[in-house]
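Input record (one chain):
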Amino acid sequence: SGSVLLETTQATPNGTYPVTISSVSGTLTRDITIVLSVNNFSLSSTPAAQTVAAGGTTTYTIADTDANGYSGLATLSISGLPTGATAYFEPAGVSRIVTSTLTISTALATPPGTYHLNVTGTSAGQARSVSIQLVVQATAGFSLAANPASQTVSPGGAGSYTVTTTASGGF
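The corresponding structure, as predicted from the sequence alone:
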């Protein structure tokens, strides 16, 4: 009988590591495989996807889904935002006991589409990410156009205009 101590460093990547231990006695050899899982922290998002009209705002809750007692604070960042969108985290980091609200605001000019964003948490030189989805829909509305745009008439005269209505965003 004996014991085995498997040590990791802060730089050890997250993962599952099978380790085979062999014992030899004379001509007999016996092997046993044990598994060491390394995970200092990981991120999750609730919900994983949100839909917003251009010009609107939406939120996600970002959490540290650590199951191994890691107590560090992960500083958050985001990439992949569409044109005209801004984002901020409140607070700017997460830990086992602190979640962060990610608020994304879009501009009226933000192009409609489905965007795959990446939220990254960095702690003790390690980075972990969670992918989220943002669907931007065109803002429903309409516009008017007049033809001609202007006319000159004599007093007592009349001018005729054609006004055209154009729907947008499913209006």
